[in-house]
Amino acid sequence: MITTYIGVGSNIAPEKHVKAAIDELNRLGEITNISTVYEAESVGFSSNNFFNLVVELNVTHSLAELGIQLRAIEIKWGREQNAQKNQDRTLDLDILLYGDLVSESDPTLPRDDLFKFAFAILPMVELNPDLIVPNTQQTIRQIWSEFPYTQSLKPVVLNLNF
Predict the structure, then answer these.
(1) Where does residue 112 rank: exposed (0-12), middle (13-18), buried (19+ CB within 10 A)?
(2) CA–CA–CA angle 24, 26, 27 (5° rounding)
(3) H-helix or E-strand containing 122?
(4) What is the spatial distance between Cα 124 and Cα 133, in angstroms, rounded to a whole number?
(5) Which residues contact 159 (CB under 8 A, 6 or more apart)?
(6) CA 33, 123, 119 angle in degrees (round to 5)?
(7) Interatomic CA distance for residues 90 and 20, integer angstroms
(8) What is the pLDDT along the chain (162 residues), one digit of tens a residue?
(9) Residue 123 CA to chain centroid, in angstroms?
(10) Is the overall model pTM greater than 0.90, yes or no?
(11) By C-alpha distance, which of 68, 63, 138, 142 is closest to 99?
């Protein structure tokens, strides 16, 4: 089994789609932990706020197969196949980390979101603060302590069963 961290985001019917994502991820592997759900302003475009969280998931899928499965889940739940980066979305599932794998091609691992967005790194602090991020000498906690916290995050209470 490989431990992977999946970033989950939605700003179209986010409560419905976050719950759907948890159900779908639970079918893909073994969910071992889920972060707090945070409401965050959209980044890079003006729109509705997003619900964001990170799911710790143990999988047997290869990285390529996991990526295919996540994309299929996004499309199943209404994401347009040709969706652009900065637009509203029903569901966005991103592989933040996949074991200790480092990749410079699609998907890039560790995902840049861990160094750029509070909605990715703060949930990781909750889940595994002492994890050393592959290809760095830094723990999640160290990255957070040096993070220029400019994005407002508001905890959201959702009943997420896994």
Answers:
(1) exposed
(2) 65
(3) helix 118-127
(4) 11
(5) none
(6) 140
(7) 10
(8) 999 999 999 999 999 999 999 999 999 999 999 999 999 987 766 788 999 999 999 999 999 999 999 999 999 998 877 766 777 889 999 999 999 999 998 899 999 999 999 999 999 999 999 999 999 999 999 999 998 877 889 999 888 877
(9) 9
(10) yes
(11) 63
Q: Which residue has the tokens 């290809």?
A: 135
Closest CA to 9 of 57, 50, 69: 50
Burial 8-20 (b: 16+ CB within 10 A, else e): bbbbbebeebbbb
Q: For residue 26, what are its two tokens?
A: 């639970």
CA distance between the termini of the chain = 18
